[in-house]
Each structure stands twice: as structure tokens, then as C-alpha cells.
Amino acid sequence: MSALAHPIFQSPEKARQWLEGHLWGDNPVCGYCGSVGNATAMASRPGQWQCNAKECRKQFTVTVGTLFERSHIPLNKWLLAAFLICSSKKGISAHQMHRMLGITYKSAWFMMHRIREAMREGKFPGPMGGEGKIVEADETWIGGKEKNKHKSKRNKKNIGGMGKEAAFSLVERGGKVRSFHVPEVTGKTLGPILSAQLHQKSALMTDEGGQYYHAGKKFARHETINHSADEYVRGDAHTNTIEGYFSILKRGIIGTYHHVSQQHLKRYLAEFDFRYNERMALGVDDKERAARLLKGIVGKRLTYRRTNERHP
Question: Which domains, from first to last, does the chain contain?
Fold first, then answer.
């Protein structure tokens, strides 16, 4: 049987029951006051609970306090959307999602940004790397190429990163990746990220960019690769792992999304980071990846107004 034929993707009731077990276990959790196992099921309204805490006494469902709260889209379609975005290595477009789910394009677009918000790590568990570990760092530019634009719209000054957005990523070999949307690629911008995100006993691998010169001195070892001299590997010194991650990111943005706006880039980075960090090589299949995503929906309700806010 196809994974898409699972009952939780077909029935809102089955989807609700599965989500209750996934988030609550055996004890309902009030989405308003957080009390556990102190609620009464309302027989007349399946899925509705009455909180018994004196300071609360509110009615709630499993979606309260999650990114599904107050959504008019059936819960089974939410779960299917989460599964589809988690199982698509290079992403899935909002147009494709709206066709598959039978909802409007606007709803699919908003739904996918909510899911990306659930993929974002609010607070990293600790620094990457450590003694004997190797971390690669590099930056890439997100934006269209001038040669692909109409001749009347080309700007000859837009070469390299000019007119594009910068993404900076760190990847631990055999481990996970962390990406950041940065305003510029300089030592002043990247240095604090490296100091905060990497263990000082790590070995750092970068290209020959001057932005890494001073920051690299803080780590146990800093090796640089001179790409301008056609050097790509020198012993264990290389940035091939991070280049491989960027190839997936770029194929997704160019081939699937085509255009990513500045205010939403952080969410797209979170999407690709999440799939990479929960990949098959680390023992996580599509089903488990979606289940882990749905653990991150609590406390991440995203309104339409917030979705359209600009961020620095």
C-alpha cells in the first residue's frame, strides 16, 4: 500500500487521533495552561476537551498552541502536506501542493511556510564539532543570474554576490548542518556565528576567504583550500561536504521554487537543513522524518500577517 493511502491522510478523525497520541501520549495536555492529564473529554464533540485546572477551565483540542491552530484546512491534509515536504529531497512547490491537496494556491503557500516554521530550530542544543571532529564552513549566494534576465533588466554591476542574498552554512562531517541568512559575508558577520556555533576543539575547513582568517585562529586547527588555484582536496582538508549540501539547496531553489524572497529565505534554509539533518544516512526514513517534524509544531503558530513581515 502506498504511504499516501494511509488512513491519517484520508480522514480528519484518524488524523486527529494520531496527532493526539503523537503529541500527548496517554494524557491530554491543555494548550492554554499546559496542565497534563487534567482534562475531561466532551462526549458531544470528539476531540474537544475541557481543562479542569481552576485557573484555566478552557476548552481545547490537540491543535491549540500549534501551527495548526484556527486553520480551516482539514487536519489530514496538514499531515499529508508535512509528509510530502519531508519526503521531497529538493522541495515541493506550492502549486504542486495545491493541486495534490485540492486547496487554493494561497492556502498551500501559507501552509508550507507554517511547516517550514516548524522545521526551524528555535535554540540549538549546543555547539557543533568537538575534539577530533571536522566542521566545514562556506557561504553561497541566493538569487537569479543576470544572464538569465531580459537584456533590458540586466545590471552589469551585479556580479558574484551583488544583488543577491547570502547564506552561510556549517556542516559537521557525518553529522548535521546549520544555515544562516546573513546580511554580508565578512569576518565581522561570520566570526560571531563561528564562535557561538562551533566547539573550540573542532578542526575548521574553509576556502581561502579572508573572512575566516581571524575566526579560524580560535579553533584547534584551521585548514584552507585555495579554489582559485584549482586546489580542492589536500589530505583531510576540503569543503566537499558543504559543497554537496549547497548543490541540493541550489537545485531545490532553482528547479523547484525558482525564486526565494529575502524575508522568507530563513524558512527555506530551515527546510533544507531539516531534511539534511534527518536524512537516510543518519537512519531516518520519510515516515520518521515527518513524525519528527510534527513534534516541532507546538508553540510555532504563524499568522498570515507574520508570514508577510519583512525581516532584517
Answer: 3-119+300-307 (no CATH), 134-277 (3.30.420.10)
